[in-house]
Design a protein that fits this description.
By secondary structure, this protein is mainly alpha-helical. It has twelve helices and no strands.
Length: 315
């Protein structure tokens, strides 16, 4: 039975306002699809690190692995970029921004591949997770965004979580720790430039320009026997980042951002399955602190955005 009009309607389950219920369900379905795509992407991306570690153990230079990730990424995206923007669109409108973005992505990728040659994948990823905290800390300087005292407190606590993972002075220094931290720093700068470019440019085109410029910065030639694994590495990278881009078109960034930490689950399983690696308990404690701080920062950003929207809508 349908909803019958009454002088004072009492809306029950299944009796939605005309047009509202359908739109709301469509929005909820899109959000769920976005969440699912993000989780799948986080499950796929650690396999990229597995390929990189196998290649590194086989004696392939890190720069060559990074070049393959950039070059083949650009090749895979090229048909879609051509179809979307045509030949003129393949040239970036702001080459300076794209060159800086490519440099930071090359640095982040290279440092992380270097880190996993010294450390387990999950441990490297745990230190790399300092990236969201650095984005919050640097956004007032680079993007002129306002960060309140609560989010600054979350950043400080998050850095304490990083110190628990590294434990300086309590364990032998591992160069992989510094490389993983450098990777997270480069990725934070990469994401800040991405935010700036996202205001005016399509994500697919920015990804293509970044991959192309990154490959041009370090053109190398792999041996014939290495092509298969290098192609797989690039395919995983493109697939993972495509899923992330699609997810962000379906759900809010503040909802999806904390889901990036589900990558730790797959990274731990992949490291254990392929290399017999398992993080210690203090690494998990530090990661838990980082995740809690990142979720809090994401929630605060969402609350702030809702407050701004409500203030704007007031007559």
């Amino acid at each position: 039975m349908g909803c019958r009009p009454r002088p004072k309607p009492q809306y029950r389950v299944g009796c939605a306002l005309p047009g509202f219920g359908k739109d709301n369900r469509l929005e909820q379905n899109a959000t769920l699809r976005g969440v699912a795509l993000m989780v799948v992407a986080m499950g796929v991306l650690p396999l990229l690190d597995v390929c990189a570690k196998f290649l590194g153990q086989g004696g392939i230079p890190i720069l060559q692995i990074v070049w393959a990730r950039m070059f083949f990424g650009a090749v895979f995206i090229l048909p879609f970029a051509w179809r979307m923007a045509g030949p003129r669109g393949l040239l970036p409108e702001r080459p300076g921004f794209h060159a800086a973005r490519a440099a930071f992505l090359v640095g982040s990728t290279g440092f992380f591949f270097g880190a996993i040659s010294f450390m387990p994948i999950a441990d490297s990823l745990a230190i790399f997770f300092v990236q969201p905290l650095l984005i919050t800390a640097l956004s007032p300087l680079l993007l002129k965004e306002k960060v309140g005292p609560r989010r600054w407190a979350a950043v400080a606590i998050g850095f304490c979580g990083t110190l628990i993972i590294i434990r300086p002075g309590l364990q032998a220094f591992n160069p992989g720790m510094a490389l993983a931290f450098a990777s997270g720093t480069c990725m934070a700068l990469y994401m800040l430039i991405t935010r700036r470019l996202a205001r005016d440019e399509d994500p697919l085109m920015t990804t293509f320009h970044t991959s192309l410029m990154g490959a041009a910065m370090m053109s190398l030639t792999p041996d014939a026997g290495e092509w298969g694994l290098l192609l797989l590495l690039a395919a995983i990278a493109v697939a993972g980042h495509f899923l992330i881009a699609r997810a962000y078109t379906m759900a809010e960034a503040s909802l999806l951002a904390p889901l990036a930490y589900t990558e730790m689950i797959m990274a731990t399983l992949a490291g254990w399955w392929f290399f017999g690696e398992m993080p210690d308990r203090w690494t998990f404690v530090g990661v838990a602190i980082l995740i809690a701080c990142a979720i809090y920062i994401s929630v605060r950003e969402r609350v702030k955005r809702v407050a701004v929207v409500r203030e704007f809508e007031q007559p």
